[in-house]
Amino acid sequence: MERIPKSDADGQHPGKEISSNSRRKFLGKMGMATVAAGVLGKTPIAFAQSGRRSGSAIANIRVSPTFSGREQYALTLRIATAQKDFHIPVPPHTTNGDEQLYPDHSASYSKGLLQDAIGVVNPAAWVSFKKALQTGQNSDFEAIIIGGTHTLNGPQGSYAFDLETADSDQFGNAPWIGDPGGLPLVPPFAQIASADYGTQLVEMYWGSLLRDVAFSDYAANATAIAAAAELTTMPAYNGPRDGDGNVTPNLLFRGPFAGDAVGPYMSQFMITPTTFGSQPMSQLMTTYLPGIDYMTDTTTFLEVQNGISTGLAKQVDQVQRYLHDGRSLAAYTHVDVLYQAYFTAFLVMAGLKFPVNPGNPYVGSKTQNGFGTFGGPDYAATQGEVAARAINRVWFHKWLIHLVHRPEAGGGVLHQIMSGNQNKINARLNSNVLNSPAVAQSFSKYGTYLLSQAFPEGSPTHPSYPTGHGTVAGACITMLKFFFDGSHVWPNPMVPSSDGLSLVAYTGSDGGQITVNGELNKLAHNVSYGHGIHAGIHWRSDTETSMLLGEAMALSILQDRACTYHEKFTVQLTKLDGNIATITNE
Fold this sequence. Notes:
Oligomer: single chain
Number of strands: 10
CATH class: Mainly Alpha
Strand content: 5-15%
Low-confidence stretches: 1-14, 29-57
Mean pLDDT: 91
Largest sheet: 2 strands, antiparallel
C-alpha cells in the first residue's frame, strides 16, 4: 500500500494518511460490472441520522402474489445496496507518525517478530513484516522473520471483504456519514511522548495493581484511593469524573458513555442468571487464582516479545465465582466466544420478558408476532453476524493503518528509560508516567518497571488499536438496542459479593436509574476493559474508539438490511454519543 505523508487537521498528530486507491478501484470495477449487467435499481437511503428519519426508495417495490420477478427484485436489491455503500466517501486514515519518528520502531507494534532487545525489533524482521503488510501476498507473510514459535494472529484478515455493510476503508478519522456532527471513528492513536499516552499507561499500572481487589471494595481500598487521586490530577485522563471534576475510587476503570457510571461496576447482564434453551446458566464463572502475574522479569518479557513459550500456565481457581474483580473479568475475556456476552444479554432480556423496541412492527398486533424477522431467531443470529463483520473492520485498522504497540511494550519502553538504558531505545515518554506513583508502587512490588500481565503470554500477537473486543461490543449492543427498549428500567439490580460467591441486592441511591441501554454500554466496557485495562493488554482509548467503530458498522448493516424486511418499520435507538439513530424502510 502506498503511504502518502499528511498532517492531521489539528496539527497535533503529524503522521501518515494511508492511500485507499487500490481498494476503491477494485470495488469500482465490481460496481461497473453490475452497471454493465443492466440491473441497477434505485438506491436505498436508510442512513441512520441524528434526529432525522430516513427512507428507502427501493423498499417501495413489492413482489406480486405469484412471486413473479422475485429473483430479479432480489438481484436489484443487492446491487442497489452495494452501489449505495460504494458511494460512501472514504475518510482520512491518519496515523500518529510514531512509526516514522522513531527509526528503531520502539513505538510501533512488533510482538512476535525477532527482537534484538527490549523494545527494539530486529531491522530485517521489521522489513519482512512491512513488506507482507504492503503487498498482501501470502508468500511474503510466510517470509516474515519471527522470533519464536508463536504465529501472528490473522494479519491477512485485514484484507478481507464483506458482502454486507460499508467497506473497512470507509470507516476512519471522521464521523460516520449518517452522523456528521458525531465523534471521529478511528482517530490517530496518542503519540508515545504525549501526556495522553502517559496518562493511559499510568492507568494501566493502576489497573494491574488493583487486579485482585473487588470492585465493591474500591471505595475503602488504599490503592484505589491513590489511583483516583493521581488520575484526578492528570488533565489528559478521559475517564468519567464527578461533578467537582474528581476521579473517585468508584469511577475507576469505567467508561464515558451514558449509564457507565450508574449503579455497580458489573453490568447486570454479566451476573443475572438465565437459561440457554433448557440449559440453566447461573453466570458463575471459572476464574484465575489471585496474586499470580506474569512478564515482570526481563528474561520472560523478552521471550514473550519474541513469541517464545515461557512454559508458564494460567492458574485456575477451582471455585466458580461471579465476575467481581479485574482478574476475574480478564479470565472471562481470555477464553470468551466472540459475541458470548451479548448473546447472553439477549437470553437475559428474553428470559425476563423485557419489552422490545417500540418501533418493532409487531408491537400492538393482535394476530401476529415476529419470528425470523423481528423475533427471537433474528435477535439471536444477528449477534454472531455482526460480530464477524466487526472483526474484519477492526483488523483492517490494526494491521494496515495504525500498528499501535501493546501496553506491555509501553512498559518495556518505560523499563528501559527508568533503568538508565534510554540510549538503547529511540522512543521517549512523558514525564507524567516517569514520575507516577503507580509506576513506583509497581516497581516496589515486582522489582522492575515492566507492566504486569494477567496471562502468561501477555497480549495476543496482533496490534493493540483498535480492539476486537471493543468493536464487537459496539456492534452487538447496537443491534440489541435496535431490537429492545433501551429505556426499560432494570428491576431489582444486584451486585456480586466481595468474594464473588454470591449476589446481594444493590442498595445505591441510583438503583432506579439503571436502564437497559446503560447496562448494555456498561457490558461493553466490562468486556473490553476486562480484555484491556484489567488484563494489561489494551489501552483505554482502544475501547472507546472501537465501540464507536462497531456501532457505526452495525448502523451500516441495519441500513443495508432495512429494505430486506417485508414489514414496514421505523426504529429509533440511542447511540453512544447520546444522539438518536433512526432506521426505517417507510
